[in-house]
Amino acid sequence: MTAAAPQPSQQPLDAIRSALRAHTTLTLAYVDEQGPQACAVLYALADSPDPTLLFVTAENTRHGRALLSGDARVAFTAQADGQDWTVLTGIQGRGNCRLLTGAAREAAWPAYSSRFPYVERTERLKEAMARTGLWELRPNWLRLVDNGRGFGHKTEWTPPA
């Protein structure tokens, strides 16, 4: 028996997930009392129906404090450096972040640690990671830019209502 072809509404999401899996670093933009700022974080895809990203950062960093302040809306991009414009591929997105704690953190951690297995290879880093915040970024809009399919080719996704 052959697998059923993805439904048309699922195809953009599959392309976006594939692009997200192709990269490991996103640039996270946020606003705090000092104004707009951006930072780079390593991310992993969570095991969830909608594309949900996980990243690690301490709560006392500038972006950690901003995300805890009550307005955890962010924008982000993910793409490889040094791409030729004719094949440039990357993701743009917007969403909301939240710090995962307790059972939610425990459930999400394997997705992050399997993407970056070195975080558990040494006891010192493993202990540091246990004390560092694991964050969930739930996009409410994603755009895949794929110049390999034509200059400026875009595929967009928003979660179902």
Which key features would you list for this structure?
161 residues; alpha+beta; 4 helices; disordered N terminus
> For the report, how would you describe the main beta sheet?
6 strands, antiparallel, barrel
Q: Which regions are unreliable across 5 or more consecutive residues at pLDDT < 50?
A: 1-9
How much helical structure, as a percent, in the residues?
Answer: 25-40%
Average of pLDDT: 87
Instruction: Evaluate the radius of gyration.
Output: 17 Å
The SSE order reads HEEEHEEHHEE
Sheet-strand content, in percent, reads 35-45%
Supply the number of helical segments. 4
* Span of the ends, CA to CA: 33 Å
Strand order of the largest sheet: 1-2-3-6-5-4
Q: What spatial form do the alpha-carbon principal axes imply?
A: globular
- Total beta-strand segments: 7
Helix-and-strand structural type: alpha+beta
Textual characterization of the structure:
- A six-stranded antiparallel β-barrel has the order 1-2-3-6-5-4, surrounded by four helices.
- A hairpin with a 7-residue loop joins strand 2 and strand 3 (53-57).
- Mean pLDDT is 87; it is low at 1-9.
- It has four helices and seven strands; from the N terminus they run H-E-E-E-H-E-E-H-H-E-E.
- The longest helix is centred in the C-terminal third of the chain and has 14 residues, at 102-115.
- It has 161 residues and is an alpha+beta fold.
- The protein is globular and about 45 Å long.
- It has helices spanning 11-21, 62-68, 102-115, 123-131; strands at residues 25-32, 35-45, 53-57, 73-79, 89-100, 133-146, 154-157.
